[in-house]
Amino acid sequence: MKIKQVVIVEGVTDTAKLKKIFGNDNVDTIETNGLALSKNTLNFISDVNSTRGVIILTDPDGPGLRIRDTINTYLDFKCFNAFINKKDIINSKKIGIAEAKEEDIRNALSNLISFDSNALSISWEDFLENDFFKPEARKKIAQKYNWSEKINSKRLFKWLNLINLNVEQIKEIVGE
Question: Which of 17, 36, 65, 141 makes a 20 to 30 Å CA pair with 174?
Fold first, then answer.
């Protein structure tokens, strides 16, 4: 499987893992060097995104989430996101893409999510009235999209709108 877009990862071990899975000639990456994400790197990512497109595949931890948010915001959410759930990481000491199983990485890159920054598919009132903020609902939604199950309510609300889900679609996910 050749990946057309360039995959944004945090470090060299993530790149090595992707190259091992897909082959050297089938995947290109840009490394952010963790939270040391510079303006030059962001500009480079933006340039690459305008020609080939990018997929953000950062670690499912706090720093990975901050890097993802920074890049998404910089690109005005005009890129793809791939998620691996923290519980799918096989190493309990290090939570990263390099420690994920091949099957989970392939699955994440086959189920890309694109955000729409102009969408407001659900209001804050609907979000609260339907109890989507409650831990059980947040967990079910997070599992569906391989987001962190510890996602907070504000981020969940924002991301539900960014992927343009309405109340009925969310109810279906939480099993109502």
Answer: 65
Tell whether 95 and 168 lie within a shared domain. no
Residue 86 sits in the same domain as residue 137: no
62 pairs with which residues across the strands? none
- pTM for the model stands at 0.84
* Secondary structure (3-state) at 152: coil
CATH number of the domain encompassing residue 32: 3.40.1360.10
Closest to 57 measured CA to CA, from 115, 19, 6: 6
**Number of domains within the chain:** 2
Q: Give pLDDT tens digits for 47-96.
A: 999 999 999 999 998 899 999 999 999 999 999 999 998 887 877 678 88
Separation between Cα atoms, residue 37 and residue 169, nearest integer Å: 35
HSE toward the beta carbon, residue 106, CA cutoff 13 A = 10
Q: What is the rounded distance in angstroms from the CA atom of residue 70 to the CA atom of residue 175?
A: 32
